[in-house]
Amino acid sequence: MSETNQTPEGIPVPYVVDGELTASHTQYPDYAGYAWQTPSEGTDWERIIKLLWQRKWWILATLVLGTALGWGVAVRIIPREYSTFTRIWLEEQPARQGAPAQTQAGVLLQGEGWTDVITSRAVLVPVVEKLALQVGVLGPEDLDRGVLRDLQVGPDLVPGTYALAVHSNGTWSLDRDGDGRVETGRIGEPIGAAAGFSWLPAEDLLQQASESEIRFRLSSAREAVFKLSGGLDVTYNPNSSIIRASITWDDPEEAAPILNTLAEQFIKVANDLKKQKIREEVEMLREQTGFTLDRLQGAELTLENHRIAAITLPSEPMITPLPAGGTTSSGQRDPVFEVFQQNKLQADQLAYDLDQLRQIEGSLLAGEEPNLLALQLVPSVSRSGELQSAIQDLQSKQNQRRSLLYTYTEDFPSVTQLSSEISDLRGSIIPAALSRLESEMENQIQILSRQVEARSAQLREIPTRTIRGARYQREVDHAATLHNSLLLRLKQAELAEATSGPGIEVLDRAWPPGSPLGDKPGRIIFLFSMGSLGLGIAGVLVFDMMDKRIRYPDQVTSSTGLPVLGVVPRLEAAPDPASPAALVAVESFRGLRTQIAHADGKVHGVTLVTSPAPREGKSMVAANLAISYATAGYKTVLLDGDTRRGRAQEMFDRHRSPGLTDYLMGRAKLDDVLQDVDVENLTLIARGAPGGFNADLLESEAMYGLLQDLRGQFDVIVIDGPPLAAGADVLMLGQGCDKVILVLRAGATKQDLARAKLETLGNVHLPIVGAVLNAMPKSSPYYESYVHYYYADADVEAAS
Questions:
Q1: Where are the alpha helices (DSSP H) in 312-384?
Q2: Are the C-beta atoms of residues 372 and 394 closer than 8 Å to each other?
Q3: In the prediction, which pLDDT does 335 show?
Q4: Residue 90: beta bridge partners?
Q5: Which residue spans within 527-574 are E strands per DSSP?
Q6: What pLDDT, on the 0 to 100 scale, is given for residue 260?
Q7: Contact status, residue 29 vs residue 561, Cβ threshold 8 Å
Q8: Which helix (H) or strand (E) holds 243?
């Protein structure tokens, strides 16, 4: 056999096997209940990098496709966006002397509250209607976007995409995507009655529609408001009292007008809210001053009637209470009467006030609306700062809530918060303050009662009408004070209503944007590129993980538990003997020969070569292994033990018969089956004629005797055995061998198949010394490293 036909099957890159062997390589595994070795833990980064480099063209193709897809999405699908902004200044008006906080122009809402007003429907809906944002032009591209501004949208609008076409006979037709023809008419008639809108286009526009149809989209007011709200970004700077509103829009010509119109509508709504709030305050104060006026007039009438009734009675000594340090009308001091009168008046007044407070508290506990005016008219309430503050706070929040309800619903955050605070004031804060005030008044009444009782013996003659008259006078004074205070607040509120301005101005108007917002297409292309690169890498790794075929030497050990004796490259059918592929093949089989010899410490003996399944290269490996032994000077015989499908005779261009089957059946002698080949020191025994052969003869005395005779004549016997899938043939041949080698084909042999075939060996103890990884592709890094090592050594030898 020539050098060129020594390797009919092939492999590119061999795996350079480390010549240092471990002790386990010389042990024969027991496949009865064989405990398979598990893969080593950890990540083999070197292998991953080699794998990625091996599949670099797949990854590059994925990257190119992803980048192209990103370019298509960024340029053709995702529209460009434009942005502009405006600034609105909130004026901080100084508080007027004596004016209540709720009548100040700037306290209707805080700065953050005004940002909610800008994005409310009270502002957005008028902007949508004024600028006709429900209408969008789709085509043709050269059509002016303002031609549809006069299109009037009705309440029965049917949203959708429409197409207007003008025909040569002077008629027009209106189609809606998905529904077909919706309306037809003649030129000069309004368009869109059947779709809920009215449009009478100009003649030049109809002329353009006769050349190519006009496509436009009509959205509902709800959709237009949502789109406008989604493009707005409103922020408030409390340090400068400036609201910054920006918009992101797909049409640069519409962005600035939308934002400027929005600012104008916001100022109008804000001014209306402020005026409405002050108007509500004025109405409330007018109602309160009318109530206090009636109460004052009633108190004065009661005092007047008391004096008229007392003037007809017999005269009695009148001692008028004077301020501390004063004197009686006669000029003499009367401290006993003065103290008694003061204590009695205070006790009666406190008892009267306590009764009124208890009635008001009872109504509050019953869930009724509190009468704040009646509560304020109780004189003792003026001495409780806590209760007065709670009453004023309740009035203020009620006014704010009524003002906000003119614009918002009960679900608006500010209204909800005010309702919660009002409920807390009514249900817990004011009742708690009343309870504390009643407790204080009860203690004071007890103290004053004890003091009055101690002095009552001295003052029983004093007329009660004098005390009653003094109490009536106190009621008149208190009612007059409260009425005058409310009257002053009413005048101030009326003045604020007449003079208050909006207090809000546009500081910077929006300008039309000049360029698209950011580099969005570039970012999208970059993200698609990076995503496709990651997808390509992940795809390669996932495919490698899911691929159950043996591709690397470490997978041989992890799946079968066998050491790797050698890696054989995939060769061409007839390689050039001087080519790197042929030289690499020769070196790979030299290394394999050395590893087999070191497996049990001797070269001589019988070596069986098998594989899990057919077409995995066992015949090629056996033939080249025999050639390697022969070229090394060992007298070698290659025995084709695959009696069913052996083809060793074809590889060496010899006859199939007489061969092994002829010898075992007694039809030929040993000298008859030995055939010389073109390789020195190498002899071939073909498989023989198949007729009438019984496979059980592989376990016969004749087979045993044949091996014994061959051992006496040859140094090395290499048997090209049948695959494990052939059944018991391998078991029969293997029992008479010194070493068994398992051939696995890279990229073809499945790990689970190899493991399953080894498990079929059962209790038969075959001397399996290791595995050979065959047909390693040239793209594998093992091939490159082996070639580099081989030629590097060759260069050194040539230089020396």
A1: 335-365, 372-376
A2: yes
A3: 62
A4: 504
A5: 564-569
A6: 92
A7: yes
A8: strand 242-249
pLDDT at res. 597: 80
> In angstroms, rounded to a whole number, what is the distance separating the alpha carbons of residues 34 and 448?
107
CA dihedral 482, 483, 488, 493 (to 10 degrees): 100
DSSP letters, 42-103, are S--HHHHHHHHHHTHHHHHHHHHHHHHHHHHIIIIISPP-EEEEEEEEEP-PPPPTT--GGG
Beta bridge partners of 564: 771
The CA-CA-CA angle for residues 583, 553, 572, to 5°, reads 35
Q: Residue 517: its pLDDT value, please?
A: 64
**Tokens standing for 791?**
């030629």
Identify the CA nearest to 744 among candidates 561, 544, 573: 561
Which residue numbers in the chain have pLDDT < 70?
1-44, 46-47, 72-79, 92-112, 141-142, 144-146, 204, 207-211, 310-337, 455-465, 499-502, 515-521, 546-548, 552, 558, 571-585, 692, 760-764, 778-800
The tokens for 767 are: 């001397």
Token pair belonging to 764? 């038969």
Determine contact, residues 289/479, Cβ cutoff 8 Å: no
Cis peptide preceding 140, ω within 30 of 0:
yes
Rounded distance, CA 620 to CA 309, Å? 142
CA dihedral 297, 298, 304, 308 (to 10 degrees): 150
Residues forming beta bridges with residue 312, ordered by sequence position: none
3-state secondary structure 146-164: HHHCCCEECCCCCCEEEEE
Q: How far apart are CA 411 and CA 423, in angstroms?
A: 16
Which residue type occupies 517?
Answer: L
Q: Show the tokens assigned to 667.
A: 């039809």
The pair of three-digit structure tokens given for residue 453, joined into one six-digit string = 């009782």
Non-local (6+) Cβ contacts of 533 within 8 A are 59, 62, 63, 66
Tokens 């497996």: give the residue: 599
Cα 233 to Cα 351: distance, rounded to the nearest angstrom: 60
* pLDDT given at position 24: 29
At position 793, the amino acid (one-letter code) is: D
Helix (H) or strand (E) holding 656: none
Count of alpha carbons within 13 angstroms of residue 103, beta-carbon side: 25
Q: Return d(Cα 16, Cα 122) in angstroms, integer.
A: 81
Q: What is the four-CA torsion angle of 429, 431, 432, 435, rounded to 10 degrees?
A: 160
Could you list the beta-strand ranges (E) of 92-208.
135-139, 152-153, 160-166, 171-176, 180-186, 197-198
Give the HSE-up count for residue 496: Cα atoms under 13 Å, Cβ half-sphere: 30
The continuous run of DSSP H or E covering 637 comes out as strand 636-640
Closest CA to 228 of 253, 258, 192, 257: 258
Of the candidates 732, 711, 738, which has an alpha carbon nearest to the alpha carbon of residue 602?
738
**Burial (Cβ within 10 Å: 0-12, 13-18, ≥19) of residue 793:** exposed
Q: What are phi and psi of 93, to 5 degrees?
A: -85, 135
What are the Cα distances from residue 751, in Å, to 246, 277, 549, 559, 663? 63, 83, 6, 6, 37
Instruction: Enumerate residues 6+ apart whose C-beta is below 8 A from 782.
Output: 13, 14, 15, 16, 553, 567, 776
- Taking Cα atoms as reference points, which of 619, 567, 557 lies closest to residue 592? 567
All residues at 6 or more sequence positions from 259 whose CB lies less than 8 Å from its CB, including other chains: 84, 85, 86, 245, 246, 247, 510
What are the φ/ψ torsions at residue 771 (nearest 5 degrees)? -125, 155
- Residue 465 is encoded by which pair of tokens? 């009408």
- Cα 239 off chain centre by: 35
Contact 214, 205 (CB under 8 A): yes
Residue 412: φ, ψ to 5°: -65, 135
Cβ of 162: how many Cβ atoms within 10 Å?
A: 25
Q: How far is CA 198 from each of CA 63, 134, 188, 355, rounded to the nearest angstrom?
A: 51, 13, 12, 70
Among candidates 120, 110, 124, which has minimal Cα distance to 407? Answer: 120
- Whole-angstrom distance, CA of residue 690 vs CA of residue 621: 24
